[in-house]
Sequence to fold (204 residues):
Amino acid sequence: EDVIVNFRHIPYSVNIDEALAPHSQLLTNILEQPDPAKMRNAVPVLGYLADLSEKTGRKQTTVPYCGDLSLTDCAQIANWVYHHIPGASKQIVNWLNCATYAHVCTIVIAKQKKNQLQEMAEHILTEPNAILQAAWLDLQLSYDPSAIDVNVDLECLGILEQRMFELSLAAGAAGNEQWGKDAGMHQDCWNPYEGLPEHWNHGD
Fold:
């Protein structure tokens, strides 16, 4: 959960940007002027919140679903919203775990699971924007509350590994792919930096 709290330090990936960039205006509208009556087909979460508010008799804004997205995915998504949606950086409380963030997650899932959701959309759903509707359904059904249980040992090892191998100003010379080079090249030219997560390269 600390990953989500510190989302500003986890840069979004190219894939996240490609998925979300075409929807920046719609996401801005959701944050600034949400209209469930007009937008519920294009933005399923607004219909969900409107129905829930009517059922409970009070306005509902929190959305507890993030599907089976990883914590890193969730943090990168939040980082993208923070940097690309006007005003988002000054009103985090109004979008994080709310409609804007939930719809962003829905878009990412629609992109990641396009083929799988296409089949669901063709055989089950008849609404406009069927793939997006299927992605919203997946966001709710794939959410596992037990996922918040954390393996502390694994988390600590992951943090240590990132500190050892990240490319960042904070890591200094040690972060400039120097690990082990004081003893020469590794056996069979093994590169310990190959395949590392994109967000470990801070670009600074």
The mean pLDDT is 81.
